[in-house]
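Thread: quick sanity check before group meeting

JM: Hey all, I'm pulling together slides for Thursday and realized we never actually wrote out the predicted structure for the chain we discussed last week. Dropping the sequence here so it's in one place. If anyone has concerns about the input, flag it before I start.
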Amino acid sequence: MYLIATSAGIIAGVIILFLAHIAPHFGAGNFVRDLDQPRILGKEVTRRESHLIGIFVHLLISGVFGCWYAILVQSGIFLSFDFLPILIWSTVLFVFMGGVIIPLEGHGLFGIKEDVWFPFDLLMSNIFWGILFWFTMRLWIVAN
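JM (edit): ok, ran it. Output follows.
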């Protein structure tokens, strides 16, 4: 179950990552611009390196949160892979991303430093992650 939930989390993360990369081409056309020199652990890196590391971190967090949800189901905290508990879990992911990961990236608490709509975008993308995670888990649960 842990491997399936981890895979479902990563698949949901990949879909969101793909949509995040093509959305500015179809929407308002505004990208989040980092004007500072990217650094990782104090070392200067290129924008491409920081982008690839950001992708890796995004997929890692998506997989870890999928696995943690399976652990919570196995321990009885969440009863099943139903829609509402997964939606609640995606709000936990929202708080973790906005309160821990995004400030570590230097974008401020919940991304407010970048844009006033950033917290709303973050919430919607994490709810969408929950929907995709639920859908992917339902596919595997029904198939077995």
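AS: nice. The chain has four helices and two strands. The first strand starts at residue 39 and ends at 40.
JM: adding both to the slides.
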